[in-house]
UniProtKB/TrEMBL annotation, chain A:
PROSITE patterns according to UniProt: 2FE2S_FER_1 (PS00197), 2FE2S_FER_2 (PS51085)
Record bears the keyword Transport: no
Functional pathway: Alkaloid degradation; nicotine degradation
Top-level division of the source organism's lineage: Bacteria
Domain spans labelled 2Fe-2S ferredoxin-type: 4-80
One Pfam short name: Fer2_2
UniProt entry keywords in alphabetical sequence: 2Fe-2S, Iron, Iron-sulfur, Metal-binding, Oxidoreductase
PANTHER family xrefs: OXIDOREDUCTASE WITH IRON-SULFUR SUBUNIT, XANTHINE DEHYDROGENASE IRON-SULFUR-BINDING SUBUNIT XDHC-RELATED
Listed SUPFAM superfamilies: 2Fe-2S ferredoxin-like (SSF54292), CO dehydrogenase ISP C-domain like (SSF47741)
Protein name: (2Fe-2S)-binding protein
GO MF annotation terms: 2 iron, 2 sulfur cluster binding; metal ion binding; oxidoreductase activity
From TrEMBL, chain B:
Coiled coil segments of this chain: none
Keywords on record: FAD, Flavoprotein, Oxidoreductase
The keyword Flavoprotein is assigned to this record: yes
Pfam family, one: CO_deh_flav_C
Signal sequence bounds: none
Organism per entry: Paenibacillus lemnae
Domain FAD-binding PCMH-type: residue ranges: 1-171
InterPro entries in alphabetical order: CO_DH_flav_C, CO_DH_flav_C_dom_sf, Diverse_Substr_Oxidored, FAD-bd_PCMH, FAD-bd_PCMH-like_sf, FAD-bd_PCMH_sub1, FAD-bd_PCMH_sub2, Mopterin_DH_FAD-bd
Protein name: FAD-binding PCMH-type domain-containing protein
Keyword Thylakoid: no
GO molecular function: FAD binding; oxidoreductase activity
Length: 159, 281
């Protein structure tokens, strides 16, 4: 084994993590830091359950070698959940029934929150932003309704 | 094992000579299913080119549109300069999903040389030039001389892709990228096609097309056949052209589609894309 010391900034904290430079960031987050809000579904970058933000942009952390995240700002759902606008989205998801089995939900919440920061992306189309998040329960309608509700509550126009 | 993060191409080349590392950018191909595959990847050291700022530039130059090797798919679809080359923007929007697009690089898509690569198809249609830098100097290759087969390229062990150049005659002219897939999601193309055309009035001056996922390398026609994209294009002529692309394809059968179906779809999608570009709908 190639044991290395990696310095990772996760949720604003500096973490020293040992292990292989190529170990997936998703594993570091879950197993070494105990931040289990980030889920692992496919390990192939398709399902989006492991979505985190790197420098504000959503990425699938199963495909990110931990060493490549050094020097960047990694944010997981645990950090986002402290934010008021994230909690408004949570409330909305509860009201519209955007959560069923819940496994995809953390990844979806990270993607939704990131898109809400810049709603012009994908021509304003939230379903395009969700392409990399697989949900087998809801059929997405209730998730999209949750986002539309957040926007409507802010006084914006519905998509 | 070292994870090297050079800040310049010069530094990258120096470390390439010293460490003989494997080059990585976004990692969206290399690190798929990593726990199962890591034993198969022969890499002692890694050279992460994501932080080389000169490789992250999109520039309009005298020769055409230059895209640095580390430019990401989402950078491509968000950059106004891609107004000049919308077929690549369309391909960049369809690669994986948002999370993959935020990591996947154009240089990686070319270097990976997957027959089903999306961004490669408009580049092949445009006869893009791949610029390489190595320990012993720089060279440029047309993309058709660079991608040699499935996961095979002309990249020398001590070389890296620095940029991709889209020649200026393919900028600001009608064009399209179309993909046929099963779910319209993060799946992989069954057949894809890019068509770029220049017309004056109802006369087609020239067109260039490339087909992806239907052959070991992107399908482009030999010059004398491609020259048939000319004059007034009617349905008969379109059918003949699309048949030429189907005949030049040599698709595989796999979990996504049979070879026979793929070849049939080459014909359908080449004609459909050309009709859209030429306004024949």
């Amino acid at each position: 084994m190639h044991e290395h010391q990696l310095n990772l900034t996760i949720n604003g904290c500096e973490n020293k993590v040992s292990g292989d430079v190529t170990q997936p960031l998703a594993d570091v987050i879950r197993e070494k830091l105990g931040l289990t809000g980030t889920k692992i579904g496919c390990r192939t970058g398709e399902c989006g359950a492991c979505t985190v933000l790197i420098d504000g942009k959503p990425v699938v952390s199963c495909l990110v070698p931990a060493a490549s995240a050094e020097g960047h700002d990694v944010v997981t759902i645990e950090e986002l959940s402290q934010k008021d606008d994230f909690q408004r989205l949570v409330q909305s998801m509860l009201e519209t029934g955007g959560v069923q089995c819940g496994f995809c939900t953390p990844g979806i919440m990270v993607t939704l929150w990131a898109w809400l920061q810049d709603r012009s992306l994908f021509g304003g189309d939230i379903s395009s932003a969700l392409k990399n998040n697989l949900c087998r329960c809801t059929g997405y309608q209730s998730i999209i309704a949750a986002v539309e509700q957040v926007i409507a509550e802010e006084g914006g126009t519905r998509i | 094992m070292a994870w090297l993060k050079p800040k310049s191409v010069d530094e990258a080349l120096k470390w390439m000579e010293e460490y003989r590392p494997k080059i990585v950018c976004g990692g969206t191909d290399l690190f798929v299913d990593w726990h199962s595959r890591k034993g198969l990847v022969n890499a002692e050291h890694w050279l992460d080119i994501q932080e080389i700022s000169e490789l992250k530039q999109i520039q309009m130059t005298e020769e055409g549109l230059s895209l640095g090797a580390a430019v990401t798919a989402s950078q491509i679809w968000q950059d106004d300069k891609l107004d000049a080359f919308p077929s690549l923007r369309q391909a960049a929007r369809i690669v994986g999903g948002w999370q993959v697009q935020n990591r996947a690089s154009i240089g990686g898509n070319v270097a990976n040389a997957s027959p089903a690569a999306d961004m490669v198809v408009p580049l092949a249609a445009a006869r893009a030039v791949i610029r390489l830098s190595g320990v012993n100097g720089s060279r440029s290759l047309p993309i058709s001389d660079f991608i040699l087969g499935p996961r095979q390229t002309a990249l020398a062990p001590d070389e890296m892709i620095t940029s991709v150049l889209v020649p200026k005659e393919c900028l600001h002219v009608p064009q399209i990228f179309m993909r046929h897939d099963q779910r319209g999601a993060t799946d992989i193309s069954i057949v894809s096609v890019a068509v770029i055309a220049k017309s004056s009035g109802d006369q087609l001056e020239w067109a260039r097309a490339a087909v992806g996922a239907a052959n070991a390398v992107p399908v482009i026609l030999p010059e004398e056949q491609e020259a048939l994209w000319q004059g007034v294009m009617d349905e008969d002529k379109l059918t003949r052209m699309s048949e030429l692309y189907a005949a030049s394809s040599n698709p595989i059968s796999d979990v996504r589609a049979s070879a026979e179906y793929r070849r049939a779809m080459v014909k359908v999608f080449t004609a459909r894309a050309a009709r859209q570009v030429l306004g024949l709908n």
